[in-house]
Design brief:
By secondary structure, this protein is of the alpha/beta class. It has a single domain, classed as Aldolase class I (TIM Barrel). It contains twelve helices and eight strands. Helix 8 runs antiparallel to helix 9. The mean pLDDT is about 95. Keywords: Lyase, Schiff base. It is found in: Cytoplasm. This is Dihydrodipicolinate synthase family protein.
């Protein structure tokens, strides 16, 4: 797996039930756009506000819908045994990868984090993408990522949602440098091009829910060594990523942007998250007009 992967929003109706028709429509749109991967039960998908049964339902529904790209399923939890259960489920339904953020809420030592991932890796065969998101969960250090990658062949890569070029550089040089098939993805739109330049494999980026054409253009231009075009696209992504600073959550930012761009996904978040109001919507509208026209 390389290129542009989309961490999918979870569409909800006004009563907070899952909006299945909107999900079907969005997955079809992304596949027609030509993205390389679709990731369900992601942070952007509000997985912490879903029940285990809903997460399994979405994973199964996504497996039905995703036919032309890599299919990734988020299986993170603060309960190791639930992670094992969800990862086995992802494996059983035929997902290509499970994406696992560290346990959240509880502060854990590196040894505890190693044991957590080891237990999952030893009880499943599906390729696992580690998900480093230190703003929301225990951080994964470069030595820990390296130890896991070298000890478990089914730990296949890492998604780095971390605003640090140096960290991404060190993962690429120290982990990918020793294990060539280990995949390194950025989780931040503004770090897409520099991750590719450093030798990474792509990005798993939320703004690709509503503007995948920019991410795909950067990817294609970089692969074809049309660097001026890649630079211009990267500058547009850098501006577009300001959308996260305007809203109170990833979900609110992305769903407001999608609403403004005409997607049928409703601007509804599951509690405890709340949608931002008209003032934020107007700021996001101005940003989209500036970047996307």
């Amino acid at each position: 797996m390389r290129g542009v992967t989309v961490p999918l929003v979870t569409p909800f109706n006004e009563d907070y039930s899952i909006d299945v028709p909107a999900l079907e429509e969005h997955v079809e749109y992304l596949q027609k756009a030509g993205v390389h991967g679709i990731f369900i039960n992601a942070t952007t998908g509000e997985f912490t506000s879903l029940s285990t049964e809903e997460r399994k339902f979405l994973a199964e529904k996504g497996r039905e819908l995703v036919t032309s790209t890599f299919y990734l399923v988020g299986t993170a939890s603060s309960n190791t045994f639930e992670v094992i259960e969800l990862t086995k489920h992802a494996q059983d339904i035929g997902a290509d990868y499970a994406v696992i953020a560290p346990p959240y809420y509880c502060s854990l030592s590196e040894e505890a984090l190693f044991k957590h991932y080891s237990m999952v890796a030893e009880k499943t065969d599906i390729p696992i993408i580690l998900y480093n998101i230190p703003s929301c969960a225990n951080p994964l250090s470069v030595p820990l990522i390296k130890r896991l990658a070298l000890e478990y062949s089914n730990i296949a890569g890492v998604k780095e949602t971390i605003d640090s070029v140096n960290h991404i550089r060190d993962v690429i040089l120290e982990v990918k440098g020793e294990r060539k098939d280990f995949k390194v993805f950025t989780g931040l739109d503004q770090h897409f091009l520099n991750t590719l330049i450093l030798g990474g494999d792509g990005g798993i980026m939320a703004c690709a829910n509503f503007a995948p054409e920019i991410h795909l253009a950067v990817w294609k231009a970089f692969q074809e060594k049309r660097f001026e075009e890649a630079f211009e696209g990267a500058r547009r992504l850098a501006k577009l990523s300001k959308v996260y600073d305007l809203a109170s959550s990833f979900g609110s930012a992305i769903k407001l942007a999608m609403s403004l761009r005409g997607f049928s996904i409703k601007p509804v978040l599951r509690p405890p998250y709340t949608m931002d109001g008209e003032a934020v919507r107007e700021k996001i509208k101005e940003l989209l007009n500036e970047v996307l026209g």
